Amino acid sequence: MSLPDAEIRPLKRIKMDNNNSNTSGGPASQKAKQRKNKYRAQKARDPNQSRSKPGHRQQPMFSASGIHNDDVGIFVTSDKGQEKKCLQELSDLLGEFFDEDLAQRRSETVEDKTAVEAEEEVDIEADIAAELDALRPHAAEGDGVGQKLSLVTLDIPCVSFVRFPIRSAVDPVEVVRKLCLTASERDAKGPRSRYIKRLTPVSLLRKTLNDGLDTLCSQILPNHFSNDAEPQNGDTHSTTDQHLTPKPYKFAIRPTIRNNNKIDRDVVIRTVADKVAELGKHTVDLKGYDKLILVDVYRNVVGMSVVGSEYETMKKYNLAEIHASHLGDGEEKQ
User: Fold this and answer.
1) Model's pTM, two decimal places?
2) Residue 300's domain is classified under what CATH number?
3) Which residue, of 78, 155, 191, 306, has the fewest CB within 10 Å?
4) pLDDT tens digits, residue range 10-31?
């Protein structure tokens, strides 16, 4: 049955309108495009945006902004092309340390608040300040390690940097030592890392310009070479400062210089050795040292840390070599 022309025309118009709405910007299509463009803009601003549920640990941010003055953290090496996977893996391993630090600080905040409330007479201003202090850690630290660590990619292959948060109580030297100690345990159930190679803790970074190395020596070395004291001349009963002298240590210095051809390795060693000599009767021993001073120069910044004699036995803090040594032991036993 054929329809009159007057009825065919409206049907054609409806069909054309439907086609236009699906292909050339109808209301539904326009809204979908707006949502898509908005999501793309958000991803452009934050390529590591987490889509996890609220309250879950947020992922640390990758950063190419480089290393800055007063940074604290860890240099980490990996195979070429695996830098980001290595950083993400190290971030996962570090999460437990920062979760413990966060829990400890929140606990201390609650204890301080309780002590303040227990006092019989507390002025109003101090009470308000205590309330604000109790809120600050939650606002500044978020729900986990995501807002604390920065994963820094560098302009040299195989080397990256994990920046610790400002005012963090987590010690990079102790963290690296514990990671390597755990990996070296005989009953460890397989390797905990696939991409991480060497870990180098950095207690503090300073600009190499304007005597940055001298400043580092004055800030780092006294904590390791002048605090421990022992009586002079075998006087074990004396407790006065005039009869005490810094405990002598055997030490070594190991500098690493990357992307900087203006700083001489021998100058770095002499500068650090002279500063240690000013702190007591310490002697250089390249193999049987008690303490090893690690100096890392990258571009225009220099970092320093002091590690113990376990550095060599723990494969120079190389997780890949520690895991490989376990596999070798297993093959020998078989």
Assistant:
1) 0.67
2) 3.30.2300.10
3) 155
4) 545 545 555 554 444 556 567 6
